[in-house]
Write a structure and sequence with these properties.
mainly alpha; Growth Hormone, Chain: A; 2 domains; 17 helices
Length: about 500
């Protein structure tokens, strides 16, 4: 069944059942992306033993995927606006599914990292483009906010399924089986997308920006590599200092180049909107907390506490359960009352949870762990929907793909940095495999997560004030958006 391409915003008249089905297909894409992440986390100790991987190798197993994902999200969003969102979405599903199959066959750590990068290429075409499709189909602001809430709840579902399913697979079949799960889901999603997702593209898509794209890749790759390899090479070594210098030069060059470009990859003028800027930094902080939390927690439960992969997965169910419950509630609150309350609750939940774990030891009671996990699930579940809604609504509707990509890029950058920094702290504190068992390392890592939670709380308060909303209206007006719909939180 073919559907002719139509301009952005023209699918609001689709029957409700069709819109719900499109939402479900988009959620399937997010499910395999999120499922892959949590499944791989719980399999890290087994991968490390099987492939004789050091801490840095485990970091690269996660960050090879998220780094490529973060680097290409902006390009994928603008490409989808230009070539067709359904088309790019389908290509992403195929690449992600193929990458998953190849990961299960990886003969070495190097091969696994390479195939994880292929997954990242495919994944970059899924999350922002799915958000763009949702923005295109759910045109009414409140209905869209609620749809985003359910879409965000899929993260919780993947967090629930990932650790338990991954733990069971690792314990019974082996770590390679965790990548098999994505294959049937991906194939079904490809077929359903062809049958039911309408094609759409922007009326005036942005031009491609190869120089800006290259600078983004150089910036993120050099920064991540320097953080991960710093403990082994030495923080003051010529290699690491040179990489930090390259990252700084790439950042300065990116800002200067994008300011002069007519249609930049990253529209810097949008950052004059305090809600949009706040949502971007909150996304980085929240997902930095998530990346560090999952990395620390998985190694703590299996290596320091001695639990099996399956038991460790069961321990993480409260995080996932509360995310599933709170994400749609957050979407409903955001749609009716704005982003302030969900962002504040999110910051409080993440901060309180990680504070409880700063004193972690091998004898910490199960009740303490479960309470902390519940609080983190509440915090993370509340914070995701307002980030997406504010970021998407704060940009011109015609650039829905780019808008979604900014929010998604911020998430992946945060998760990449979170894993890199926490892993670097682990390696630097003790060194080698012994770091996995170090309670001191866990204390330092959890304090980093506390800082992320405090950042979410403070920026959630500052970016939802009346003054902040006025800056969002001014930015929207600059781009000819005469009737901006919910350009800021709470509007």
């Amino acid at each position: 069944m073919s559907h002719p391409p139509t301009p952005q915003g023209s699918h609001a008249g689709l029957p409700r059942s069709r819109r719900v089905l499109v939402l479900a297909i988009c959620c399937m894409a997010l499910l395999i992306v999120g499922l892959d992440n949590t499944i791989v986390n719980v399999a890290l100790p087994s991968i490390g033993r099987s492939l004789h991987a050091p801490i840095s190798g485990l970091q690269w197993t996660i960050d090879a995927y998220t780094l490529v994902l973060a680097s290409l999200l902006m390009l994928s969003g603008s490409t989808a606006d230009r070539l067709g969102r359904r088309r790019v979405f389908q290509i992403g599903l195929v690449l992600f599914t193929l990458g998953s199959l190849l990961c299960s066959l990886a003969p070495s750590l190097g091969g696994l990292v390479a195939f994880r990068m292929l997954q990242g290429v495919g994944g970059s075409m899924l999350t922002p483009v799915a958000m763009s499709i949702i923005r295109n189909v759910f045109d009414e602001p409140r209905e869209r906010a609620q749809a985003i809430g359910f879409w965000s709840a899929t993260i919780g579902v993947s967090m629930a399924l990932g650790p338990v399913l991954g733990g069971a697979l690792v314990q019974t079949v082996g770590w390679r089986s965790v990548f098999w799960v994505n294959v049937p889901i991906g194939l079904v999603a490809v077929v359903l997308t062809a049958l039911f997702v309408p094609e759409s593209r922007a009326d005036r898509p942005r031009r491609l920006d190869p120089v800006g794209q290259a600078l983004v890749i150089v910036l993120l790759a050099s920064l991540t590599y320097a953080i991960i390899e710093g403990p082994a090479s030495g923080w003051l070594s010529a290699e690491i200092l040179g990489l930090f210098g390259v990252a700084a030069a790439a950042l300065v060059s990116l800002i200067r180049y994008e300011r002069r470009r007519w249609q930049p990859l990253l529209e810097l003028r949008f950052f004059a909107s305090l809600p949009f800027s706040g949502a971007t930094v909150i996304a980085v902080a929240a997902f930095m907390a998530l990346g560090g939390f999952l990395f620390l927690n998985t190694l703590y439960l299996q290596d320091a506490r001695g639990l099996s992969a399956f038991s460790a997965g069961l321990y993480m169910l409260p995080i996932a359960g509360m995310t599933v419950i709170c994400a749609p509630i957050s979407g409903r609150i955001t749609g009716h009352r704005g982003s302030r309350v969900p962002l504040l609750l999110g910051g409080i939940g993440i901060t309180a949870s990680s504070l409880m774990l700063t004193g972690l030891s091998t004898t910490t009671s199960t009740a303490t762990l479960l309470i902390a996990y519940v609080l983190f699930g509440i915090g993370f579940g509340m914070v995701n929907a307002p980030i997406t809604d504010t970021a998407v609504a704060g940009m011109p509707p015609a650039q829905a793909g780019v808008a979604a990509a900014v929010a998604s890029t911020s998430r992946q950058v945060g998760q990449t940095i979170g894993v890199a920094i926490v892993g670097a702290v682990a390696a630097a504190s003790v060194g080698g495999a012994a770091a996995l068992h170090s309670i001191h390392t866990a204390h330092v890592g959890w304090w980093i997560v506390v800082g992320c939670g405090v950042c979410v709380l403070l920026l959630g308060a500052l970016s939802t004030t009346r003054h902040a909303r006025s800056t969002a209206r001014r930015v929207a007006a600059q781009f000819g958006n005469e009737q901006p719909e919910r350009v800021a939180a709470g509007v």
